[in-house]
Amino acid sequence: MQITDETIEYVGILAKLELSDEEKEQAKKDMSDMLQYVSKLNELDTEGVEAMSHTFSVHNVFREDVVTNGDDRDNMLINAPEQKDGAYKVPKILS
Prior knowledge:
It is a single chain. Helices cover 35% and strands 4% of the residues. With 95 residues, the chain is mainly alpha-helical. The chain has a domain at 5-41: Orthogonal Bundle (Histone, subunit A), CATH 1.10.20. Strands 1-2 form a two-stranded antiparallel sheet. A hairpin with a 2-residue loop joins strand 1 and strand 2 (87-88). The protein starts with a helix and ends in a 7-residue tail after the last strand.
């Protein structure tokens, strides 16, 4: 893939960069070098290699989401200064 001046302009707009002409030429050279380096991956023989999303095996390490304390509303409302219909009653703050 060839990096064009239009590509550099577009990337500059996306990155909100104002590049001088020298910086644009350097960016074009750098991007071309990066693409050339990455294109070397196409030379690899990947026949029979299983596709993967991570370099090491990943598994879910989180616990199951299980309710352990249930609905203990009466206990939670014991220390409430005021309650109404099984909920905390608080002063009205908006009129």
